[in-house]
Amino acid sequence: MNVSEIEFGTLWTYSPWGTTEEEFRSKTMKSNLKTDAIVTEDRISMSEYVARGIKKDLEKLPFAHFFAINPVLVPMPSSSLTKTDTLWVPLNLANALVKNGLGIKVSQCLQRSKPIRKSHAGPASERPKALEHYESMSVQKELSDPAEILLIDDFITRGATSIAAANRLADAYPNANIRVLVVMKTITNPANFKKIYDPCIGKIEYSNGECFNDCIE
Question: Which CATH number is correct for 5-213, 3.40.1130, 1.10.3210, 3.40.50, 3.60.21?
Fold first, then answer.
């Protein structure tokens, strides 16, 4: 993998171990995001709620420049092989963003070519490494030399999936500027949790087989 650093942005944070009221609310939001639940009185899905919120506050968000040159939005593939009629939240998010004028189009060019165990299954030491993710992905070259690609995902912890996906896309589209937008970042240490709505921009770095990012984990 030749790409060792990518820029990424996140909108919300989630605290799996915290005990405050705000942290419990973050768990509910995490569940609603994971299932793309209907979340408002006017019956819109979580993905649409996210897209409308980003559009409304875009000028204030630290990752506003991600959308400055109409990127192609590429949803992050799930850990399993894509099946018809299966919920794919990153795809729903990407479609909602484009519907709201954020991004030029959605491309499903990035796919899992073989299934991989889920990142949240088991202890951190047993999570798939970036190279494992990279080797389980493939790109269908359906795009014509895109200038900007924005990977869309629902959750991030360290960023192994993101760096692997960026490398696969860079292999196929070496001239593209590739960034990542993730709705919710996991804050594993409750002491580092501030609030749910906490937009952040940073870098995911890949070194010696491990991933790190500078939005506090």
Answer: 3.40.50
Please list, in sequence order, all residues whose beta carbon lies within 8 angstroms of the beta carbon of residue 113, skipping any fewer than 6 positions away: 136, 137, 138
pLDDT digits (tens, 9 = 90+) for 123-142: 566 788 999 999 999 999 99
| Rounded (10°) CA dihedral 46, 129, 186, 74 | -30
Segments making up each domain of the chain, as ranges: 5-213
Q: Max Cα separation, the chain?
A: 49
The pLDDT value given to residue 125: 63
d(CA 13, CA 100): 23
Give the gyration radius of the chain's Cα atoms. Answer: 16
pLDDT digits (tens, 9 = 90+) for 5-41: 999 999 999 999 999 999 999 999 999 999 999 987 7
